[in-house]
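Course exercise 7: structure representation. Students receive a sequence record and must write out the corresponding structure in token form. The form below is the worked example handed out in class, using FAD-binding domain-containing protein (469 residues). Read each field label carefully; the graders check that inputs and outputs are placed in the correct fields and that the protein name is recorded exactly as given.

STUDENT ID: A-19
EXERCISE PROTEIN: FAD-binding domain-containing protein
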Amino acid sequence: MSSSTPSPSTSAGTHAIVYGGSMAGLMSAGVLSRHFERVTLVERDPFPNGPMQRKGVPQAQHVHGLLTRGMDILADIFPGIREELVAAGAEFLDVVSTVAAFGAGSWRRRFHSGVSAASVSRLMLEWVVRQRLQSLANVHIRDEREAVGLKTSGDRTRVTGLLLQAPGGGQEETLEAELVVDASGRGSRTPQWLEALGYPRVEETRIHVNVGYASRIYRKPPGFEPGWRSLAISPELPKQRRLGIIQGIEDNRLLVLVGGWLGEAPASADDAAFLEFARGLAQPHLYEAIKNAEPLGPIHIYRFAHNQRRHYERMPRFPEGLAVVGDAVCSFNPIYGQGMSTAALQAEALGECLRSGARGATQRYRQRAGQLLEGPWLMATAGDLAFPEVEGKRPPGFGLMNWYGNRFQQLVGYDEEAMRTFVRVQHMMEPPTAMFSPRMVLKVLTVRPDKAAQTPGPQPLAASSTRAA
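STUDENT ANSWER:
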């Protein structure tokens, strides 16, 4: 493991603080270590010494995906991190050839797409990244400390530090810094703190989806070789609401998730409810894979009420020296798997703004972050708003876009070019507009329903595309 600190690419200041030690905070601190002499990461929880659950990341026991673009950014922040993840048991697998995917009423064609992603648990991913951050000489970690307020200049136009105390109370402590980054998640108190300082309340958009899911780890049964490494059974929106995923993770284990939209989730955290829900998926393959498998732990339940976006980019006034990243600014329906990768894009953007000079950097970042969120927010909320029961403002032309999206998903079921385009957009390697190129539009308009028809089981890897992932 490298313990060297990269030479600062710019001299933005002496000290920066990041509060919130999840992936958004870890990546942001890594970026800032290149721009400040010293970086302090503040976290309310005690950090465990290993890939273990902690209170502040209640969803960590569930399936996660760091998309290809997010992994590229992570590897730029921490060179060699891919190799360290592999050494910890992760695998980098082709996202089409190794995945048996059922969606839009059919099994997807499998072939070598050239797009790979890490197959690893969230607990292991965060542990490997945290170890790497801790090895940087100019990064100091203060866990078991809670942020309780912002310190500002006399005129309140600049944030100059952070007020801390032990969780539950105790002596307050002030950390001075030229930059404070809020990576504290959905429960961020920055809106309240800014309002108390005389700033307007940040505008929020919420789209209620009432998502729930349950996850459990199983031992991979001896001789279990179904021909895929991961399985994804997605509903045909909005007619169906249930989904199921099997993800291979380190130590030859299977992480299994079942759940859905609008309250469609296992009734309780017991074996019978979990298996009964799995039996009710659109296809039987997930249930068949786990019905006799050995569970390696309890069933974990997670509920997500609403997508939430705070529009800091719209605020007419905002203090210099403060940046907000990750779920603290925007948290998506986790089913779409965009959270960590969008946080990586924000961390990267913050670094780019600092390279342009420390003066005005956080104001530039605030606008840039707002632009970055447009695509992921549209992708996530378009699926949720397809349900008539979901309340929220539909954008102009939503009906036409929803029709196009459904047709595109049918096309993806059998057309390799469309599937390549889709996974590149899904993994943030191309913008959503790639799905609307003239060539794609023509294909969508001429979708062959017979070719997209449901097939009896996962499609085998295409004979012409059997290169190793």
